[in-house]
Design a protein that fits this description.
The complex is a heterodimer of chains A (478) and B (483).
Chain A lengths: L9 H18 L19 H22 L18 H11 L12 H11 L2 H13 L6 H17 L5 H13 L5 H17 L3 H17 L2 H4 L2 H4 L6 H14 L1 H10 L1 H16 L21 E3 L14 E6 L2 H7 L8 H15 L3 E8 L12 H12 L8 E5 L3 E3 L7 E3 L3 H5 L12 E4 L5 E4 L3 H14 L4 H5 L1
Parallel strand pairs in A: 2-3, 3-4
Antiparallel strand pairs in A: 1-4, 2-7, 5-6, 7-8
Helix pairs in contact in A: 2-3, 2-4, 3-4, 4-5, 4-6, 6-7, 6-8, 7-8, 8-9, 8-12, 9-12, 12-14, 13-14, 13-19
Chain B lengths: L20 H14 L6 E16 L2 E19 L2 E7 L4 H17 L2 E2 L22 H5 L2 H17 L3 E17 L12 E16 L6 E8 L7 H14 L9 E7 L1 H12 L4 H5 L6 E5 L4 E4 L12 E3 L17 E5 L2 E2 L6 H8 L11 E3 L6 H6 L3 E15 L4 E14 L2 E5 L3 E5 L1 H4 L3 E4 L3 E2 L17 E3 L2 E11 L4
Parallel strand pairs in B: 8-15, 14-21
Antiparallel strand pairs in B: 1-2, 1-5, 2-3, 3-4, 5-6, 6-7, 8-22, 9-10, 11-12, 11-14, 12-13, 15-16, 16-17, 16-18, 18-22, 19-22, 20-21
Helix pairs in contact in B: 4-5
Classes of the chains: A alpha/beta (478), B alpha+beta (483).
């Protein structure tokens, strides 16, 4: 720091000594210095360390983007997953992978190294690594070969950009392998179908859906009743996957054409397709498409005057969401509107702004608590819900709140047990094991026509409903 | 270490080992003054002093007197929050730390999880607890040296080898937000609190390595540790445990000294959580209720001998722990009935619709009886007297079946008298089985329950008061060579 000061005299030396003494207390300490955060890959010796470094860069960029880009005015871009990874991510992966040539890399590092190659954009090396890994296993060992294929498919689908071509190539080989379990194959086809659908690759999604349906069609009754089938996709099991595949095969334009004709035509299309695929009665379709939407009951309304009109509003297109606001509040960071609960609220806002004729109702219930506030009364809780929803600025939003009936387990346990509210009971439509659906698009006649949160699809359904008016073309013809 | 605005250095021998309330307040005000751009500044300010002395083979191997400060600063910028910590208190360093927290908030933040329109932070009252002793705080390195000399001398005079550890600590904590500076009453705030801790434990072994005795005690007040009595007991146990005989493993009636009971109880302490039971794990899950789709727990069921009550009152001067928000007296087992399991505030609000969390068994008092250990021995036809256990590990979380070793003194009792020292055993037993096979209970006494990690700065006391227990059919599964 003072290397440019030359102290040549005794006086200068004394002065320096005085300065040094005066500065001693401060010099005894180490001043805070902002650490160097550049990724120095030379310190990473293993594939896992490299992969973690790449992931740190990716997470850091995502956090930074969350602060600088507020996504509440932009619908999610389905082709986001096809975009190249940010340059810092690719560069870090490239620098780190140079020490792991594919020809000599340890096969024990197969999974993380494959992910690392893909992050670095070394797709040829990734493919060679898969081939090396498969070649290292005896041709008779179908179990291990199958497992390798499954791992590779998952890694290809998890990569950014998602590698649909490579995943499909492995998938075809995997499906042709002897001894491949049909339920496993169905799951992998579903993964490919959903990955392709999510990035807007409808051709590939339909192709995967066709394979899925073919496998599903060949399942024995025992396989359809197996635990593996029931747990294949969350609450709805394999039936949900078949339903999604069915919709892919039909294609949105076909469904919209039917809806344009009439809600009954759409209902008939979906139910009959289900009956063909699952060899069940058409009414066994596990989704309430074509059902009459029950009137919403509420103890409190936001705004308070909203209760004077019944919901869903007769003669209007309605979008109705059963929203568990406790989970929503607890899981939604401010500013993160790209996904999850925050994303759904942002979707509501965009739909409401785009379709002024659309009536949106959020149906919720009291929980006896609201984040960290002391236990509130139902009226206080409703007011807190109102205050919480206000910043999301959803035009013309109506919220229906039911004071949840509950009881407590006997002391000393004392846990609160919520009884199902009448709204939730009504919206199970009397099905013994309803699939968990909590967002409904309802036509002007009060019939459910679509489910879920897919903003792009919802917008197209709403446009058709608003254009055709009550009943549709079939109704008009009569 | 420096404190205050100027370059004043805390010199060796300075009696102020931790930050006072006034000093903490001044530092916090300076930190908040450095913040730019408004929004919340949160400060957690800890100061800590630790004086320790360790000896082995009758010679001191470590004597230290250390102190430190830790300042953690959280700054909110926009929707991000950044955190930085430092131990430097001069203006330049604190301002640099605040700037760094602000940069961290922008560059790599913990994104705030608090959505807008949230209700106000509720007021969190704390009880008064006894956790401070001037005598502990005043102890100097010389004091500890003199104590150690007095502890080592009797063993050395008898040709024995002693090893031990002596520690005194003090600490202070203040955690405030710039939004509640004058009255820090939020659940995440901690108004200024200071505490002391003291602990002493020693082992005496004979030169041939055939006998070993141990004694120890912890508490916030050094004057109540009774170091000379501990030294005498360890020496007495060592002499009495020399040249042990080998006994067949099997089930024995045991007289567990309070420390042995406390060692077993650690397994129970670690299991006392509602969320575990409601996930169907641990000893307190009962059965899955297929109608309500939840795990029923054993709350309300009699699970221990009805003579056992385990409770904690924060106002109990022998059981002082750092006060937490809304802390109330709690009974975990009432006459053998499981009455409470710990939960956090989120659980309290969501599942019970009540305000406060229920702490775990950080400090506890276990009920006892009036039988002395001598009387227990006198009424035992054949059994074992156990000083303590070590290396206890859970084998089965459902039953709390555990294994561990007896150490530092194990004796055979025959026809009402201690007849011989016995080689140590490995046991395979559950504290729940033991507390259901009680024959006699003695007077509860404070035991040795040291902080888990003495090298961590913030380790509050977890005192326990436990009786000796005479229980039948305690399972010893093999002999071990350790003494």
């Amino acid at each position: 720091m003072r290397s440019d000061v030359k102290i040549t005299s005794i006086a200068g030396g004394a002065l320096a000594l005085l300065l040094a003494l005066a500065a001693a207390p401060a010099a005894a300490q180490t001043r805070f210095a902002w650490p160097d955060t550049a990724v120095d890959v030379s310190q990473y010796a293993t594939v896992e360390q490299c992969l973690e470094a790449v992931d740190r860069v990716r997470r850091g960029l995502a956090r930074r983007e969350a602060l600088t880009v507020l996504r509440d005015t932009m619908p999610s871009d389905p082709r986001e997953a096809l975009k190249p990874a940010p340059a810092p991510v690719t560069e870090t992966a490239e620098r780190c992978t140079t020490r792991f040539p594919v020809a000599s890399a340890k096969l024990a590092d197969f999974a993380p190294l494959l992910a690392l190659y893909l992050a670095a954009g070394r797709d040829a090396d990734a493919s060679a690594l898969v081939d090396r890994r498969v070649a290292a296993v005896s041709a008779k060992n179908t179990l291990e070969r199958t497992a390798i294929g499954d791992s590779a498919i998952h890694i290809y689908l998890d990569a950014r950009p998602v590698r649909l071509d490579a995943a499909e190539r492995v998938l075809v080989a995997r499906a042709r392998a002897d001894g491949a379990d049909r339920l496993d194959r169905m799951k992998i086809y579903a993964n490919l179908m959903i990955a392709a659908r999510d990035v807007g690759d409808t051709t590939r999604a339909r192709r995967a859906a066709g394979w899925l349906v073919a496998v599903a069609d060949s399942l024995t009754p025992a396989e359809r009743e197996s635990e593996k089938f029931e747990t294949m996709s969350g609450e709805g099991g394999g039936r949900v996957l078949v339903f999604v595949a069915m919709q892919q095969l039909m294609g949105l334009p076909v469904m919209l054409d039917s809806l344009r004709h009439s809600t009954a035509a759409l209902t008939s299309l979906e139910r009959n397709m289900w009956a063909q695929l699952m060899r069940e009665r058409p009414e066994a379709l596990p989704y309430p498409i074509g059902e009459r939407a029950p009137t919403i009951l509420a103890d409190y309304w936001i705004p308070s005057t909203a209760g004077s009109t019944s919901r869903p509003t007769p003669g209007h297109v309605n979008y109705l969401i059963m929203l568990d606001d406790v989970i929503c509040v607890r899981t939604t960071p401010l500013g993160d509107l790209s996904d999850g609960c925050g994303g759904r609220l942002a979707t509501l806002r965009r739909l409401s702004e785009r379709f002024p004729a659309l009536d949106i109702t959020v149906v919720t219930r009291t929980h006896g608590s609201f984040v960290y506030a002391p236990p509130p009364s139902p009226a206080e809780e409703v007011d807190m819900t109102r205050q919480w929803l206000e910043p999301y600025r959803i035009p013309r939003l109506t919220v229906a709140v039911t004071a949840t009936p509950f009881w407590n387990l006997p002391r000393p346990d004392g846990r609160r047990i919520d009884k199902p509210t009448q709204n939730y009971t009504n919206y199970t439509f009397g099905k013994s094991s309803p699939l968990f659906i909590n967002a409904y698009l309802i036509d002007q006649d009060g019939t459910i026509v679509a489910l879920g949160y897919d903003e792009s699809a919802l917008a197209q359904y709403i446009e058709v409903l608003l254009q055709r008016g009550t009943g549709g073309a079939e109704h008009a013809a009569k | 270490m420096r404190r205050g605005d100027g370059p004043t250095r805390l010199v060796e021998g300075d009696s102020e080992r931790i930050l006072s309330k006034e000093e903490c307040d001044a530092i916090v005000r300076r930190i908040i003054g450095f913040a730019k751009g408004g929004a919340e500044t949160r400060v957690r300010l800890q100061s800590w002093w630790n004086g320790e002395l360790r000896w082995a083979r009758n010679r001191v191997s470590l004597a230290s007197d250390r102190r430190d400060i830790r300042v953690e600063i959280w700054r909110t910028v926009g929707v991000g929050r950044g955190r930085v910590s430092t131990n430097q208190l001069d203006d330049a360093s604190l301002e640099s730390a605040v700037r760094a927290a602000e940069r961290a908030a922008v560059l790599s933040p913990e994104v705030l999880r608090q959505p807008p329109g949230m209700p106000p932070i509720p007021r969190a009252e704390r009880p008064k607890t006894a956790i401070w002793s001037d005598a502990t705080y005043a102890a100097t390195p010389e004091t500890r040296g003199e104590v150690a000399r007095a502890l080592v001398a009797p063993a050395e005079a008898q040709g024995m080898l002693s090893a031990g550890y002596l520690e005194m600590r003090a600490g202070s904590l203040l955690q405030v937000s710039s939004e509640r500076l004058v009255d820090p009453c939020g659940p995440l705030d901690t108004p200024y609190a200071k505490w002391t801790q003291a602990q002493c434990s020693m082992t005496v072994r004979d030169a041939e390595g055939t006998g070993s005795g141990w004694a120890g005690r912890s508490g916030y007040d050094w004057t109540k540790i009774g170091a000379p009595a501990l030294a005498a007991r360890a020496l007495e146990k060592c002499e009495a445990s020399r040249h042990p005989v080998t006994l067949e493993p099997g089930r024995y009636t045991v007289i567990l000294e309070p420390q042995a009971v406390a060692d077993l109880m650690e397994l129970v302490v670690a299991s006392m959580f509602r969320t575990d039971a409601e996930f169907g794990t641990g000893p307190w899950a009962l059965v899955m209720d297929d109608v309500l789709h939840l795990w029923r727990t054993k709350l309300g069921l009699k699970v221990l001998d009805e003579r056992i009550t385990i409770s904690h009152d924060p106002a109990d001067p022998e059981l002082g722990i750092l006060p937490e928000p809304w802390m109330q007296p709690v009974t975990w087992f009432d006459k053998g009935v499981l009455t409470n399991l710990a939960y956090d505030r989120e659980y309290a609000l969501e599942k019970l619709n009540v305000n406060p969390a229920l702490r775990g068994m950080t400090g506890y008092r276990m009920s006892g009886g009036t039988t002395s250990i001598d009387e227990m021995i006198a009424t035992t036809t054949r059994g074992l007297l156990v000083t303590r256990f070590s290396n206890t590990r859970t084998l089965d979380s459902k039953s709390l079946l555990a294994t561990g070793l007896t150490r530092d003194g194990l004796w055979l009792i025959e026809h009402g008298k201690i007849t011989k020292a016995v080689k140590n055993f490995r046991f395979t037993e559950s504290p729940l089985f033991v507390l259901n096979a009680i024959e006699q209970l003695g007077v509860p006494v404070p035991v040795f329950r040291p902080v888990k990690n003495p090298y961590e700065q913030y380790q509050p006391l977890t005192p326990a008061i436990v009786p000796p227990v005479k229980a039948r059919d305690f399972s010893f599964t093999s002999t071990i060579d350790a003494i």
